[in-house]
Design goal:
By secondary structure, the chain is mainly β. The protein has one helix at residues 2-11; strands at residues 48-64, 74-97, 100-119, 128-129, 132-135, 140-150, 154-164, 183-192, 198-209, 211-212, 217-218, 222-234, 237-248, 253-254, 257-258, 267-278, 284-296, 298-310.
Length: 312
């Protein structure tokens, strides 16, 4: 059980921008990295200081339209994203609120984005190049107060995640690593451990986006459900399936006008395997793959995660 809880602590959340492309929400990306909290999201770490490190690779050659077909407005499309990130947690010793332990978190990442995006135009005009590349800081993520409740067979976490527009941003660039607007997101996460072998995970999140004051663009609000089902076959090995469901629930708007006449609402699902190995009770590495399907108004690709916790 100790190895299971250690694996859960390295899997819990960090947030940063992972994608940037044509599609739903401004520039088609998200403040929140879809799929980061699919394994033990409800397990809060023990009291004290904790540090986590993450790498995620995302690649897509498909950009889907409002009905889930290939976007014919694009003559050529490809996106590649490589992100390194870290998160620090301080679980306040001896502090209890509503019977829960209290965690304060901060996370920061450095994405490298490469986007090929050629907008189709009538012949004889050549496609319009709207791609580019960028490396820089993403927006800072803070969780000032998260509450964690613990029982023998389940763990729960609830609170508020906030994104600050601190990342690298230039409105004249096609590709940016920062998004230049605030986001606030209430979250609830649950991890159920019926015995020493099984695990069931769910995290629910609703992101409320502010307006980008440089472009007067307000991205629609976003609902995310992340999930995982795993089994511990050996004392130090946990494996299973993980994924997510993403739905944009309100329209994109710019200067009071609904984007594209349909609000440009995005959606996507993802599913794939994961495996975690606990080298010690304090050091575990987690590898996850998430293949996307049934995308609308956004890219459809594959994410690969490598996550670990540095012992202190």
């Amino acid at each position: 059980m100790k190895n299971i809880k250690t694996l859960g602590r390295i899997a819990t959340a960090l947030t940063w921008a992972v994608t940037c492309a044509a599609g739903a929400t401004e520039a088609g990306g998200n403040s929140y990295p879809l799929g980061v909290e699919t394994v033990f999201p409800g397990v809060m770490p023990p009291e004290g200081f904790h540090m986590y490190f993450y790498y995620v690779h995302y690649e897509s050659t498909r950009n889907e339209n409002n009905v889930g077909d290939t976007n014919q407005r694009l003559a050529d499309y490809k996106i590649r994203s490589d992100v390194v990130a870290s998160r620090v947690d301080w679980v306040w010793p001896g502090v209890r609120l509503l019977g829960a332990t209290v965690d304060t978190r901060a996370a920061l990442s450095v994405p490298t984005l490469e986007v090929k995006l050629d907008v189709a135009r009538p012949a004889p005009l050549a496609p319009l190049d709207r791609g580019g590349s960028a490396t820089g800081l993403a927006d800072l993520q803070l969780a000032p107060v998260l509450l964690g409740w613990h029982a023998d067979t389940y763990h729960q976490t609830a609170g508020l995640e906030v994104y600050l527009p601190s990342g690298t941003y230039n409105a004249a660039r096609n590709v940016n690593t920062g998004r230049h607007y605030y986001q606030a997101a209430p979250i609830y996460a649950l991890t159920v451990l019926p015995d020493a072998f099984q695990q069931y995970d769910l995290k629910l999140r609703y992101g409320i986006n502010g307006k980008n004051l440089h472009t007067a663009y307000r991205s629609g609000n976003e609902f995310t459900a992340e999930f995982g089902v795993g089994y511990r076959f050996y004392p130090h090995i946990l494996t299973g399936l993980n994924g997510y469901i993403y739905r944009q629930t309100t329209d994109d708007r710019q200067r009071g006008v609904t984007i594209n006449g349909d609000g440009n609402r995005g959606s996507v699902n993802a599913l794939g395997p994961f495996i975690g190995y606990s080298f010690t009770q304090k050091f575990t590495v987690l590898l996850k793959v998430q293949s996307e399907f049934k995308a609308k108004n956004r890219p459809e690709g594959t994410r690969t995660w490598l996550q670990t916790k540095v012992p202190f």
